[in-house]
Structures are given as structure tokens and as C-alpha cells.
Design brief:
α7 links the parallel β5 and β6 (187-191). The chain contains 14 helices and 12 strands. It is globular. The model has no long low-confidence stretch (mean pLDDT 95). With 398 residues, it is of the alpha/beta class. The structure holds pyridoxal-5'-phosphate. Residues 72-74, 97, 99-100, 140, 144, 169, 171-172, 191, 193-194, 203, 205 line the site of pyridoxal-5'-phosphate.
Length: 398
């Protein structure tokens, strides 16, 4: 069975009624035949049939052993960190999602878990930074917002030599484009809020593991800490997955066209998109990804903050909003929105320039999206001319 057929037919038909859509079991508890005798479900924090359908589906999507669904991507990440104990260390990609950094730095540090950061785009840095205390190597690939790529296979081997787990946040690629477990990852996490659910209508998170031992531990933590996904949101996520294959194909093809258009544009300075042969780790992206996804970021010539703000205010189809991965295209300005909490000097160090703009490409027609960007560039240019004109005019008056 090929990939898309497998996804569609991993969604079960309801045995009792024949319902082709997974029923929403909106219930907290299940009646028992005798104490401890039940049909596999006793309390919905522990297990719920709708959530279980989603969990089995995502395990299959990622070629994992088992999947677990949480109330948000961060709740999923929180569960994975709880596999560790005080004194353990994590070695993480330096270009990390801000919310994950906050969780490491503001919450788990207090509990004695140390996180060290390194530029994992070159695996040699991982060899240098890993220690006997490292229990997890934490990757995101591609990263947000600079679309950096790390070699999952090479870094997995290094982690395993030290007896550490390799965790991959696969949110940006989605399991359709990249299956980290196939390349040696032990644990995959997702903000299912993004591409997996895919319609900007639910907050959800996933953990997928590659072994029965890890499954047992994650299941225990999920039930003990309780950050589960509810039945209705599980159903929404399943419904999103039904079209994920179509969406990721379409979005990736459109994004590549847009990246090529932007790359040759006079007003664009740096462009980050792993599908372009100019991307520094394009060859690694080709090895581990089927296509290159829907996120593009770019900066403007002369790197002016005001021009970037003019630009993100000028697009019509690209809606100005945080988040990504939905069917409608979104645009965001990193320095004033998604990465505003990071001090400017550090932002510059990690490649987030003042004018860096991030696009989340949706399923609209590529021609319309290009036209939208073109008219925004024209407006920015015109504003620039007006500004220099009024400056000259006011200087002339002096
Ligand atoms: C959004 C995001 C998260 C957090 O997910 P939530 O569903 O918002 O909690 C984690 N990792 C990455 C890469 C993300 O983009």
C-alpha cells in the first residue's frame, strides 16, 4: 500500500455502527461489567476511544511503535522531558522553538535538568558538545524561523553511542515529508496545531516513540500528569490528517515556486528555504525529506525594520498572524512578533535579522500568492520613495 492509501485506511471504521467517521466519545467514564472488568476503557484521562484512534493513526504515520495525544505541542514536549531525572542533561539545537526554550529554561531548570545548546547543522558540533550526562539530544529540523537542517541519521548515531535518546520535533516537516524514526530517532514530537491538524482550528500535541519500553513510560507520564487531548479535538485532528498528504504536496510545490520568485527579487536579501539549492544544507534536506514544506523566511535589502513592517502590512492574501501550517497563507515579522522576546543582539546571532519575514504558505493558487507578494513589494518601494521625497522636500524648506 502506498503512503496516502495507508493514511486513509489507518483511520478505522466504527465496528459497532459502521460509521465511516470516527465517533466522538464525549464521555469521562465507562460503565464496568464488574469491578475492574471493562471493554478496554475505564476513565478518559487514561484512555478514550477517539483519542486512541488518533494515537494509533499517528504511530502508523511516523512508522513508530506507539503514539500519544496531548492538549498542545508544549504539553507533548513537557511529557517527553519528564522521562528524565534531576541531574540529567539535554543537548539541544540552538535554533530552538521559543516555547520549548522557555520550558527548558524557566521550568525544568528549577527541577535540576540542564540544557546545553549547540549548532547541530554540523554534526561535528554534537560530537564536541555531548557528554556522559547527556540523556537526550533534542533536534528540530527544519528550524523556526531560519529553516536550518540537521542530519537526523548522523546525530542519531552519535546520541546512541552515548546512550542518549534522539528526540526530533518534526512539526515543520510533518510526517508526510519526513519520518525521523526511519533515520534513527527514538522519539518524535509534534505541535499537531500546525500541519497535522492543518486548518488553524485546534491546539494539539503528539509524542510518537519507537519502542515498547518508551511507550510504557510515556503512557505512564501521560496518565499521571494528565495533559491529554480531548475527544472532540482528537476528532478534529483525525479529520485534518485525512487530507495531510494532499496539503503537504500542494503546499510544498507552491512554496518552492514562491521561494524561487523571492530568490531572484531585487528587494530580497537573504532567503531561507531548504528546497533551494543555495540552502547550505540542501543536500541533507534531500536525503531525509520528501519535499521541503511550506515555511519560507527572507530579509529585505538594507535590513530595515520599517520596510519589513510595511511589507507585512501590505499583503492581502497572506494574513498577518502568528502560527503556521494551515490552509490559509500567513505572514509574520519575526523581530516584532514571533521572536520579540529574544534580545536584538542574540536575534542577530541566530540569524534573525531586523527585517526577517516568515511566510506560511497555504493551499491557495501560487500565481495569486506571487501577485500578492509583488504588490506588497511595490507598496514598500513606493513608501520608500515617498519618504525620501518628503525628506528632500522638508530639507529644501530649511
Ligand atoms: C508551535 C510549535 C510548538 C508548540 O506547539 P503548541 O501546539 O503551540 O503548544 C512546538 N514546536 C514547534 C516547532 C512549533 O512550531
Amino acid at each position: 500500500m502506498l503512503a496516502t492509501t495507508k493514511i486513509i485506511h489507518s483511520i478505522p471504521v466504527d465496528e459497532q455502527t459502521g460509521a465511516i467517521s470516527v465517533p466522538i466519545y464525549q464521555t469521562s467514564t465507562f460503565v464496568q461489567e464488574a469491578p475492574g472488568v471493562n471493554k478496554g476503557f475505564d476513565y478518559s484521562r487514561t484512555n478514550n476511544p477517539t483519542r486512541k484512534a488518533l494515537e494509533d493513526l499517528v504511530a502508523s504515520l511516523e512508522n513508530g511503535y506507539a503514539g500519544f495525544a496531548f492538549g498542545s505541542g508544549l504539553a507533548a514536549i513537557d511529557c517527553v522531558i519528564k522521562l528524565l531525572s534531576a541531574g540529567d542533561e539535554i543537548l539541544a539545537v540552538s535554533n530552538l522553538y521559543g516555547g520549548t526554550f522557555r520550558l527548558f529554561d524557566k521550568i525544568f531548570k528549577k527541577f535540576g535538568i540542564t540544557v546545553n545548546y549547540t549548532d547541530t547543522t554540523d554534526w561535528v558540533n554534537v560530537v564536541e558538545a555531548i557528554t556522559d550526562k547527556t540523556k537526550m539530544v533534542w533536534l528540530e529540523t527544519p528550524t523556526n524561523p531560519c529553516l536550518q537542517i540537521s542530519d537526523i541519521e548522523a546525530i542519531g548515531k552519535i546520541a546512541h553511542q552515548y546512550g542518549a535518546y534522539l528526540v526530533v520535533d518534526n512539526t515543520f516537516a510533518s510526517p508526510v515529508l519526513q519520518k525521523p524514526i526511519d533515520f534513527g530517532a527514538d522519539i518524535v514530537v509534534h505541535s499537531a496545531t500546525k500541519y497535522i491538524a492543518g486548518h488553524s482550528d485546534v491546539i494539539a500535541g503528539l509524542v510518537i516513540v519507537n519502542s515498547p519500553e518508551l511507550a510504557k513510560e510515556v503512557k505512564f507520564i501521560q496518565n499521571a500528569c494528565g495533559g491529554i487531548l480531548g475527544p472532540f479535538d482528537s476528532w478534529l485532528t483525525i479529520r485534518g490528517i485525512e487530507t495531510i498528504s494532499l496539503r503537504m504536496d500542494r503546499i510544498s510545490d507552491t512554496a518552492l515556486k514562491l521561494a524561487q520568485y523571492l530568490e531572484q527579487h531585487d528587494l530580497v536579501d537573504v532567503i531561507h528555504y531548504p528546497g533551494l539549492s543555495s540552502h547550505p544544507n540542501h543536500h541533507i534536506a534531500c536525503k531525509q525529506q520528501k519535499k521541503f514544506g511550506g515555511i519560507i523566511s527572507f530579509s529585505l535589502k538594507q535590513d530595515r525594520l520599517n520596510e519589513a513592517l510595511d511589507f507585512v502590512g501590505a499583503t492581502q492574501l497572506f494574513k498577518l498572524a502568528e502560527s503556521l501550517g494551515g490552509v490559509k497563507s500567513l505572514i509574520a515579522h519575526a523581530a516584532s512578533m514571533t521572536h520579540k522576546t529574544i534580545p536584538r543582539a542574540i536575534r542577530h546571532q541566530i540569524g534573525v535579522q531586523d527585517s526577517l519575514i516568515r511566510l506560511s504558505v497555504g493551499i491557495e493558487d501560487a500565481e495569486d500568492l506571487i501577485e500578492d507578494l509583488e504588490q506588497a513589494f511595490e507598496k514598500v518601494q513606493k513608501n520608500g520613495r515617498l519618504k525620501s521625497f518628503s525628506l528632500k522636500a522638508s530639507l529644501a524648506k530649511v
